[in-house]
Every structure is written in C-alpha cells, then in structure tokens.
Amino acid sequence: MHSRLKPYTLVVIQFAFIFYIAWTAPILARTPLWLAIEMAGLFLGLWAVWSMRLFNFNITPSVKVEGYMVERGPYRFIRHPMYSSLLIFSENS
C-alpha cells in the first residue's frame, strides 16, 4: 500500500467500526452505572482533545510537521486517551 494512503485507510477502517458499533448497539446505556461510565468516557475524550489543542490535533496516525508531544491532561496518565475514551464510551450492556 502506498505510504501516503495508509494513514487514511486506517482512519476509514476505524470510523467504519465506530459507525458499526453505533448502528448495532444502543446509543446510551440502560442502567445508571453504565450511563455514568459512558459519561466518564465522553469526558475523557473531550479532556484529551482540549489538552491537545486544535493546532496539534491530527486525525491520521502520522506525525505532524510542527506537532509536539502532549504531556498534559490525561496524556500524563494514559498513552492514548482518545482511543480509551472510545472504548469506554462504546462499552455498555
């Protein structure tokens, strides 16, 4: 696969799975405990984006030319808080 297409292919696959989960599962949890867990996942994702700042945000898994490593917010504790947020938010029963 061409090296310039690979990051975009990975993003398309990621969004396809996110849409599949959203399509086949309930949007919000049915119990208060799972709803609280979902809201914690949503908060974690918003905190991660806010900590990264929009200038440094990149949807593809490739390094930006003028990007920098974020070491504040949830990035102090979790290596990939946005992915963690998606997993927490989409895990309900």
Report on this model:
The protein has 93 residues and is an all-alpha fold. The chain has one domain (6-90). The chain is 54% helix and 0% strand. It is built from three helices and no strands. The longest helix has 21 residues, at 32-52. It starts with 5 loop residues before the first helix and ends with a helix.
SS-derived structural category: mainly alpha
Number of strands: 0
Oligomer: single chain
Biggest sheet details: none
Q: How far apart lie the N and C ends?
A: 38 Å
Compute the average pLDDT: 85
Q: Given the C-alpha coordinates, what overall shape results?
A: flat
Low-confidence stretches: none
Bin the strand percentage: under 5%
- Return the string of H and E elements: HHH
Percent range for helical residues?
40-55%
Radius of gyration (Å): 15 Å
- How many helices? 3
Number of domains: 1
Q: Key terms for this structure?
A:
3 helices; mainly alpha; 93 residues
In short:
With 93 residues, this protein is an all-alpha fold. It contains 3 helices and no strands.
Chart the SSEs and their pairings.
Layout (H helix, E strand, L loop, with lengths): L5 H19 L7 H21 L28 H10 L3
Helix pairs in contact: 2-3
